[in-house]
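for the recovery benchmark. tokens below, seq after
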């Protein structure tokens, strides 16, 4: 697999379009951090790290509206890819839908949202947009 983050986002997108409640993805440290951010920002209902085998898995419980059955995640878009990395400084931090969405940034201080990175005045690699 050349791009595990794109695979992670695609698995979540496919589960949302199929209206699944839970999706399992292979674990990595970066995927764990992205999952924690999605949970903290209210895009997913819950998550669980399962340590089985050398890699482990992440079970993600997706969040839907109880009335209309609409997902909390409207769109997930991969920005930086292995062939074309996208970096940003803290002054040029991307705004997703005028601040309604989040950009997940990989910085020297760890993985965080664009707002947290701008507050700490550090830049990094723009992994994805979520809204």
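predicted aa per position
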């Amino acid at each position: 697999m050349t791009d595990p983050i794109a695979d992670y986002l695609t698995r979540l997108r496919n589960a949302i379009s199929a209206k699944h409640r839970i999706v399992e993805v292979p674990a990595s440290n970066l995927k764990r951090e992205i999952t924690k951010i999605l949970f903290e920002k209210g895009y997913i209902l819950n998550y669980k790290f399962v340590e089985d085998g050398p890699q482990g898995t992440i079970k993600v419980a997706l969040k839907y509206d109880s009335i209309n059955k609409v997902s909390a995640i409207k769109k997930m878009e991969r920005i930086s890819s292995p062939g074309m990395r996208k970096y940003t400084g803290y002054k040029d931090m991307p705004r997703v839908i005028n601040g309604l969405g989040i950009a997940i940034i990989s910085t020297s201080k760890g993985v965080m949202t664009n707002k947290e990175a701008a507050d700490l005045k550090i830049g990094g690699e723009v992994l994805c947009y979520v809204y």
